[in-house]
Amino acid sequence: xxxxxxxxxxxxxxxxxxxxxxxxxxxxxxxxxxxxxxxxxxxxxxxxxxxxxxxxxxxxxxxxxxxxxxxxxxxxxxxxxxxxxxxxxxxxxxxxxxxxxxxxxxxxxxxxxxxxxxxxxxxxxxxxxxxx
Length: 132
Known about the structure:
Layout (H helix, E strand, L loop, with lengths): L1 H12 L5 E15 L4 E8 L3 E5 L5 E5 L4 E12 L4 E8 L4 E7 L4 E8 L2 E15 L1
Antiparallel strand pairs: 1-2, 1-3, 1-9, 3-4, 4-5, 5-6, 6-7, 7-8, 8-9
């Protein structure tokens, strides 16, 4: 995974833009526990999902077994030392998320606030590949 994210960052920096695809095979939903200072996982799912990013890294589609949603990437940053993309995204339903693609911990994570609680949806990466 580290190699793939490094190659993607190299391609972006050098002007060769490729379409990033990420498949996942595990999902966790959690809410932040302020007192315990930890994530409380309240559900897990072994169903796979697919993320398909456009070549310009301005949008992506997330497909699950039951729904497909489009997301608009408002801004993104890549940390080469941590092999991590950090993004601010908005869903086609208008919901805003912080999203992280983490090459070290091998996951795609969404963070968001809902009714004064902080939530995490974490997908474990199964595979990544590029289309030109």
